[in-house]
Predict the structure.
Amino acid sequence: MAQLDWYIRANLKPKHLQLLVALDNLRNLGKVATSLHVTQPAVSLALGELEKGLGLKLFERTARGVIPNAYGECLIRQARVVLASLAQARDELRALQSGASGKTTLGTMPAMTPGLVPQALTLLKQRLPNNTVLVHEGSMDSLLPDLRRGALDLIVGRLANRHAADDLAEEPLFEGSSTVVAAIGHPLAGRRRLAWEDLAGYPWVLPPMGSLPREPLETAFQYHGLNMPSNYVETLSVHVIVGYLGSTDAIGILSRVVARHYADLGQLAILPLELPNPLRPIGLTWSRHRALSPATKQFMDCLRDSAAGLRL
């Protein structure tokens, strides 16, 4: 234990972390050597020295290459976090050199990009013009791994768990309810009262099977004794939903905040129908294991203030 503690504190360097990540990514000493611009014997020597210094075997050597064992997987996981933190420090220093005050790397679900995120960005630039945000759009399934390995500072979207995992912190911003929508010129648009039976015969844009928004819709159809539509397309893409509804008599569902955004623009009508609301709230997710930068905290305040001002 003393050797392990001493080696990590005094001798473990970024080049060792880069080697571990490259070995995990490529699983082949020759390919790792090429990627790091060194010889294969140099890679073998460096790995041997690392394992000797730690007093632990990290990889199993096989005919197909190298495979990390439990010790290797643990160290690789932490190596990715450390390298991401160093990259974040580099980016912040570069931003400061260029006159910016700080930088946040944000992950966002597509449903947040029409309204909430642009409003928060506008607010940030009003308050702190020299702060900047790099925005990555994706599903929670793709964003959460990036957050855990340090490639993202923050995610805004539907909260992944009712109780966050031990390594994640969550903060709700507003409820995640959905609403039924159609084009502004749809035959059902503008009516003060509708029954679910009135939707029969119209095509639909449905959330895919297994997605969170699908559950309340299926529950509503079942409760009202209706079959699910047979004429439909499936997507979670906000742009596809809005575009398809605008050119057809189809009906769809969107999160209430997105539906209100397009209704305010005069592109969609919100139909007076209630959906059950088992969906998880919209909110912020970040890692408990990494300190939030001042820039990220400032942008979180902008997201909170923008969410508080949304008309839901």
In short: The CA atoms of residues 28 and 64 lie 8 Å apart.
